[in-house]
C-alpha cells in the first residue's frame, strides 16, 4: 500500500473525466484521472457537439484542430432528416443545416466529430496542462472524512492495490457508475426505453444519398426504427436500431439486442439501406440501453457525479456528451476556487443547485425527441413540449447562491435572443473584431464587462471596457452598468445602471461564499 495526494481525483477517463481534468488544468489545478479501460474510446459514440462544447474547446485553444479534424469525416453543415430507408422516401426534416442561424449567437459552430477521435485531443491537452492519467486502474472503495477522500485503486494489469488521498473526487464513471452505487444514489426518470444495438459497417451508400445532408438520418419503416450516421464520403458509419417489428408497442419491439446474430444484423442493415444490391461489411455490433434518467443527488460530501453517472439520455438530440461537458464547466472552476483558497465551502453546494434542474430538463427534452422521432407509435403523452435546440444549448437559466440578482421565478430556459445578460444565463456573444468575441474573454477568472468607466476591479477579477456595437443592448445594461461573468461564462451579477465598488465587491464575495478569508475546505 502506498499513499499519494492530489487535489482532485477523477474516476473515469472518457469524455467527461478528461474534460474535467482539462478545465482544472487550465485553471492551474492538477488532477489524477483513473480509467479502467486501456485507453480512450474505441467507438464513435457521441458525435454531435453543441455550442456549449465548442465554446469550451475555443476557450482552451482546441477549436481549430477539432473543426479541422471534423471536416475530414463529416460535412460541416450536415442536417437531421428522417427517411423510410436510404433508398426510400424522405419523411421529415428536423434540422436543415446544423449551423443555420448560429453565427448571430456564437463565434464558433456545432460540429460532428466521433468521440473516439475527440477524446485523444482532449487527453493530450489535459496532460499538457498538468493532469496525470492512469489507465487500467479502477476505484474499488473510498472513505470520506472532514479533510478529504481516501480511495482504493486496483491496478488491473499488476493486480495490485494502492490508495490515493484527494481533497475532492469527480465520479465520471459512466451510466452504470460503481461510485454512484457505492454512495447509494438512485436514478429516477423514464427508465430503460430500449435495449438497442449499434451496427458499425462499411458500405458504399453514396448513390443513395443524393443531395441529402449527411449529419443524422433517421430511419422509420415497419421493420425497424433508428438512425444512421455516415461519414462524409457515404462509405462507412454506423446504424443505431432502437426498435423492430411492425407493432412497436410490445416489449419485444424494443428488446432489439436479445439473440441478435450477425446474419440478423445484416438483414436489418440492408433493410435500413433499402436495397440488397450494395455490398456491406459489418465491423462490430455493440449492445447498449437507451435510458432517460437523472440521479436523485449530484453530490455526496466531497464526491461529485458528472456526465452519465449523473444523467443518462437517449442519443436523440445529441445531448449526452454535451451535458457532461456542461457539468465539467460548472464544477471545475468551483473546485479550483476552493482548492486555491479563494472560495468558501458553500460554493460547492451550487453545483447540484444549478446543474440538477437543467439536467432534468435536458433528460426530458432527449426523451421528447426519442418519443416523437423514433417510436411515436408507443405514445407521446408523457413527452414534454419540444424546446428548440438553440435554446437548450445556450438559453438555459440557472439559479443558486452563485447567481446574484437573478429572478428565481422558476424559469429554466429562454430564447437566447432574450437572455440579454440576465444573471444565471450564458453571457452573450458580442463581436469585438475579426474572429474576436466577448466569449474569448472568459474562462480563467471572473471578468467585469462595462461600457464606460475605469478598469478597477476586486482582486481576481479582470475588467474590460467594451466599445463595440450592440454590447449595451446585448447585456441589458445602460452605459453606466456592468456584468460580472463567472469563469464558466455565466453572468453571476449585473448592474443595469451605475454601481459602487462596494456593491461589486459584495457581489463577488457572495458568489464565492466567502467573507474575504481563505477557504479551509
Number of domains: 3
Residue share in β-strands: 25-35%
**Can you count the helices?**
13
**Unreliable segments of 5+ consecutive residues:** none
CATH fold type of the largest domain: FAD/NAD(P)-binding domain
The N- and C-terminal alpha carbons lie at a distance of: 26 Å
Radius of gyration: 23 Å
What features would you describe in this structure?
The mean pLDDT is 93. This protein has three domains: 5-75 and 109-188 and 292-378, FAD/NAD(P)-binding domain; 190-291, D-Amino Acid Oxidase, subunit A, domain 2 (D-Amino Acid Oxidase, Chain A, domain 2); 395-511, Glutaredoxin, CATH 3.40.30. By secondary structure, the protein is an alpha+beta fold. Helix content is 26%, strand content 27%. The relative contact order is 0.13. The chain is globular and about 75 Å long.
What is the strand and helix layout of this fold?
Layout: E1 5-11, H1 15-26, E2 31-35, E3 48-49, H2 51-59, H3 63-73, E4 80-83, E5 90-95, E6 111-112, H4 115-128, E7 132-135, E8 137-144, E9 149-155, E10 160-171, H5 178-183, E11 187-203, H6 206-209, E12 216-221, E13 224-230, E14 236-244, H7 262-273, E15 280-295, E16 299-300, E17 303-305, E18 311-312, H8 320-339, H9 349-373, H10 389-394, H11 416-419, E19 431-433, E20 436-437, E21 446-450, E22 461-465, H12 471-474, E23 482-485, E24 491-495, H13 501-511
Parallel strand pairs: 1-2, 1-10, 2-7, 4-12, 10-17, 21-22
Antiparallel strand pairs: 3-6, 4-5, 8-9, 9-10, 11-14, 11-15, 12-13, 13-14, 15-18, 16-17, 19-20, 21-23, 23-24
Helix pairs in contact: 1-4, 1-8, 8-9
Amino acid at each position: 500500500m502506498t499513499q499519494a495526494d492530489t487535489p482532485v481525483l477523477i474516476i473515469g477517463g472518457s469524455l467527461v473525466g478528461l474534460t474535467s481534468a482539462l478545465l482544472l488544468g487550465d485553471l492551474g489545478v492538477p488532477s489524477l484521472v483513473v480509467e479502467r479501460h486501456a485507453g480512450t474510446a474505441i467507438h464513435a459514440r457521441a458525435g454531435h457537439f453543441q455550442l456549449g462544447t465548442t465554446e469550451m474547446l475555443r476557450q482552451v485553444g482546441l477549436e481549430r484542430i477539432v473543426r479541422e479534424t471534423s471536416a475530414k469525416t463529416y460535412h460541416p453543415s450536415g442536417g437531421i432528416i428522417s427517411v423510410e430507408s436510404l433508398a426510400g422516401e424522405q419523411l421529415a426534416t428536423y434540422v436543415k443545416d446544423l449551423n443555420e442561424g448560429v453565427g448571430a449567437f456564437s463565434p464558433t459552430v456545432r460540429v460532428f466529430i466521433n468521440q473516439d477521435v475527440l477524446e485523444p485531443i482532449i487527453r493530450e491537452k489535459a496532460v499538457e496542462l498538468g493532469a496525470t492519467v492512469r489507465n487500467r486502474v479502477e476505484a474499488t472503495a473510498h472513505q470520506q472524512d472532514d479533510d478529504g477522500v481516501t480511495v482504493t485503486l486496483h491496478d488491473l494489469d499488476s493486480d495490485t492495490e494502492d490508495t490515493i488521498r484527494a481533497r475532492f473526487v469527480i465520479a465520471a464513471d459512466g451510466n452504470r457508475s460503481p461510485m454512484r452505487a457505492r454512495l447509494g444514489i438512485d436514478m429516477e426518470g423514464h427508465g430503460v426505453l430500449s435495449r438497442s444495438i449499434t451496427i458499425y459497417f462499411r458500405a458504399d451508400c453514396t448513390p443513395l444519398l443524393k443531395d441529402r445532408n449527411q449529419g443524422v438520418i433517421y430511419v422509420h419503416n415497419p421493420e425497424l426504427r433508428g438512425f444512421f450516421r455516415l461519414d462524409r464520403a457515404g462509405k462507412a458509419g454506423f446504424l443505431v436500431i432502437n426498435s423492430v417489428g411492425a407493432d412497436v408497442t410490445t416489449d419485444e419491439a424494443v428488446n432489439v439486442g436479445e439473440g441478435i446474430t450477425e446474419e440478423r444484423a445484416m438483414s436489418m442493415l440492408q433493410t435500413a439501406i433499402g436495397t440488397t444490391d450494395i455490398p456491406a461489411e459489418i465491423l462490430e455490433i455493440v449492445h447498449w440501453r437507451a435510458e432517460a434518467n437523472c440521479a436523485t443527488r449530484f453530490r455526496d460530501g466531497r464526491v461529485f457525479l458528472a456526465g452519465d453517472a449523473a444523467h443518462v439520455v437517449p442519443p436523440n438530440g445529441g445531448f449526452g456528451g454535451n451535458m457532461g461537458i456542461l457539468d465539467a464547466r460548472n464544477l471545475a472552476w468551483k473546485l479550483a476556487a476552493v482548492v486555491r483558497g479563494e472560495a468558501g465551502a458553500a460554493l460547492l453546494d451550487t453545483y447540484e443547485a444549478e446543474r440538477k434542474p437543467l439536467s432534468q430538463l435536458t433528460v426530458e427534452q432527449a426523451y421528447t425527441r426519442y418519443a416523437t422521432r423514433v417510436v411515436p407509435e408507443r405514445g407521446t403523452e408523457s413527452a414534454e413540449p419540444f424546446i428548440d435546440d438553440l435554446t437548450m444549448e445556450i438559453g438555459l437559466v440557472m439559479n443558486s447562491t452563485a447567481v446574484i440578482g437573478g429572478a428565481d421565478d422558476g424559469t429554466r430556459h429562454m430564447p437566447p435572443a432574450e437572455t440579454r445578460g440576465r444573471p444565471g444565463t450564458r453571457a452573450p456573444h458580442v463581436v469585438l473584431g475579426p474572429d474576436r468575441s466577448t466569449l474569448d474573454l472568459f474562462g480563467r477568472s471572473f471578468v467585469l464587462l462595462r461600457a464606460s468607466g475605469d478598469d478597477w476591479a476586486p482582486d481576481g477579477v479582470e475588467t474590460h471596457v467594451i466599445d463595440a456595437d450592440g454590447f449595451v443592448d446585448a447585456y441589458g445594461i445602460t452605459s453606466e452598468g456592468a456584468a460580472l461573468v463567472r469563469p464558466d461564462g455565466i453572468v453571476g451579477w449585473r448592474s443595469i445602471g451605475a454601481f459602487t465598488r462596494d456593491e461589486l465587491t459584495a457581489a463577488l464575495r457572495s458568489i464565492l461564499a466567502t467573507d474575504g478569508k481563505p477557504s479551509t475546505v
